[in-house]
TrEMBL record:
Signal peptide: none annotated. SUPFAM superfamilies: 6-phosphogluconate dehydrogenase C-terminal domain-like (SSF48179), NAD(P)-binding Rossmann-fold domains (SSF51735). GO terms for biological process: organic acid catabolic process. It comes from Paenibacillus algorifonticola. This is 3-hydroxyisobutyrate dehydrogenase. Residues 3-162 form the 6-phosphogluconate dehydrogenase NADP-binding domain. Residues 165-284 form the 3-hydroxyisobutyrate dehydrogenase-like NAD-binding domain. The lineage of its organism: Bacteria, Bacillati, Bacillota, Bacilli, Bacillales.
Amino acid sequence: MKTVAFIGLGVMGMGMAANLLRKGYSVTVYNRTPGKAAALIELGATEALTPAEAAGGNDVVITMISNDQAIRDVYYGENGIFSAVRSGTLLIDSSTISPSLARELAATAEQKGASFLDAPVTGSKPAADAGTLVFMIGGSKAVLGANDDIMLAMGGKLIYMGENGSGSIAKLAHNTIVGINVVALTEGMAIAASGGLDSNAFLELVQAGSASSKSAELKGPKLINANYDVQFSLELMLKDLKLSSVLSDSLRVPTPLLESAKSMFQVGESMGLSELDMCAVAQAYEQYIGRRLGGGSL
């Protein structure tokens, strides 16, 4: 069985690494912020002090990091992954990063005799914990076929998208839809709340009709209960929409809905909601209408 290094123990990474351990993999973990590894060590993980230490002795290195700059630091920085990676190692990045950076990482890996897959995920925290994530993968199809067991230990579905960078493009396009859907759901619920409708009855209608979506399923109850515990943070959604905006500009794709959704999440950021779940953007609408989406005045 392959040995694995897992770097990045945030909301998603914790569940992903835990599932690898539960499936019997030997896992070395590293996180830039100390103190995150205790629960994984209890499950049998070994903690490394640097990305290089984590990467140097393992067959597969998986990264789940917040943004492009952090990925650059982990891969290219002092004691970074590329300072220690061995020929034949597989690098899998499941972060949401720019397609250009994914291609750059793939090119550097090839120079060092390693392989690279950009393999971001969808499913947020519940799916990471349950091991039911969906991976969208860019890179060599042969490399994926030889290593699909690793990703299937963390997820329920693998979708091959094409060459390196394709996984990143797919994730940004996907999260554009997610961000727009969350804002659309919130806006519709704001109209219903302002009109005096019962929020539970309205959500039942949404889920039974053409407006039904995964966002309504996952976020509707959270909006009604003002539950902003993080499944996927507002900060990360805004980061993804900004990346998607840059990508769509480079591809000359008009994206008026993307820009509107991005603006709403920027409003949420300005209200200090960045570290809450992305559906906390509802608080902006609640300020506009002067009442809670789940019922009652502010």
